[in-house]
Amino acid sequence: MADKVTRRDFLRTGGVVTAGTFISGGIKHHLLADEQGEPARPISANDHLQIALIGAGGQGQYDTRIAAQVPGVKVVAASDCYDGRLTHAKELWGTAIQTTRDYQEILARKDIDAVIIGTPDHWHKQAAVDAMKAGKDVYLEKPMIHLYADGPEIIQAAQSTGRIIQIGSQRVSSMIYRKAKELLASGAIGELNMVTAWWDRNSSIGAWNYSVPLDASTQTCDWPRFLGSAPKIPWNPEHFFQWRKWKAYGSGVAGDLFVHLFSGTHFVTNTHGPTRAFATGGLRYWRDGRDVPDVMLGLFDYPQGFNLSLRVNFVDGGSESEGLIFTGSEGTMTIGGNGVSISRVPREKEPGYLITSFSEAMQKEFLASYRKKYPLEHPTGEALLGEEKYVAPRYYNDSYDHLKNFFDAVRSRQPVVEDAVFGFRAAGAALLSNASYDRHNVVRWDPEAMKILED
Nearest to residue 65, comparing CAs of 2, 120, 128, 112? Predict the structure, then answer.
C-alpha cells in the first residue's frame, strides 16, 4: 500500500505574502505565508466532484492521490492498460471504484465530472479530445502535445466544447514562482537579460529505467491499446513500462523536463515563448536501446530581449538538481529548493579608472580630478549589496495548489492558470529542442501563432 498523503502534508495557500523575517548567514529570509486554503464555507452537495483517472502509472496515481485531498473531490474510476495498476487503484481508492482497460467506458458515465490524464505522451491528444467531447473537464499531464499537430486540435476541442482544461506543469501555481514573478515585475533585479535553467537527474530511475513488474505479459497488459497510434511492433515490456525512452511514445528530455523549465520561465517573465532555438546533446551513458538523448542543451532567443539556456543531464552520477537563474542589470534571482532568492548588485555609476602605468604625480592628479567629478557615494567603500530569500513552509506542495486551481475552475467555470494555449506554448517551445537536435540546425518559432517557421 502506498503511503497515505494527508492534508497536513500540503500547504493551503492563497496570496504570496511574507509571514515572518529573519537573518541567517547574512541573508534576509522571508517565510512565505502558510495561509488557510480550505474553503470559507462547507462544500455543498451540488459542489462535490467525481473524478476518474486515465493512465494510472506513477504520475497519474500521484496526481490523483493529491486530487483526492482537495475538499469535495472523490475518485470513482480508473483506466489503464496494465491490470496491476487497476488492482492498485482499488487498493488506493476503494474496491467500489470502476476499473477498466478502456477509458471510453469511463467517458460514457454521466456522473463523472472531470478526468486526470496521465497516459504516455502519444495518447495525450486523443484522450483529452475524447474526454472534452464527452463533456468532461480535463487535467492533462505535461507535455500537452506529442506532435505539433496535437496542439491546435486540443485548443479547438476546448473552445468548441466549453470544457475546462488544465495542463499539469504545476510550477505556474507555485507560491514560489508567484513570488518570483512579483519580484521580477517590481524591478528587483533590473532589466532581465538572461535566464539559465537546468535539471540534472543522475540516477537510473531518474533516467526512466522504471521497474517492470514480474507479471508483465500480453495477458496482464493491453499491448495493442497501449500502442495506439504508435508503430505496431511485437510485445516489448520495456517499451510498455519505460516508454519515455522512445520517441514513438514520449518526447525525450525536452518533453519530460524542459517543458517544466519553459512553463516556469514563461509564467515568471509573462512571455509566450522563444523565436529561435538551437539544441545539441547526445546519448552519452544510457546506451540501452533508447532512441532519445540523455544529455541535452538548448539556447533560445526571446523577443522581449533576453536569452534562455537550458540543460538536462542524466549521466554524471551526482545528486539530482533543478533550478533557474534570472540575470538582470542589477542582480540575480534564483529559484531552487523550496524558495526564491535575490542578490542585488547596483549598476556602476562611474566609469572607473586604470592609472597604475602613469607616474605617481599623474596618478595623484588624475584621482583628485576623478573624485571631484565622481564623489564616493559610500566613503567606507561598502557596496550596496543585498541578499534576500523567500522560503515556502515545510511540506509545501505546488501540485496541490495546481489541482485545487483546476477544481475551483471546474466549479466556477472561470479560467485556469494553465490553459491549452499556455500549455501548447510551453510544450511547443520545449519540442523545438527535439526539432533542432534532429535537424542539426537552428529552428525558428512564432510564439504567438504557435508555429514552426520554415526557412
Answer: 2
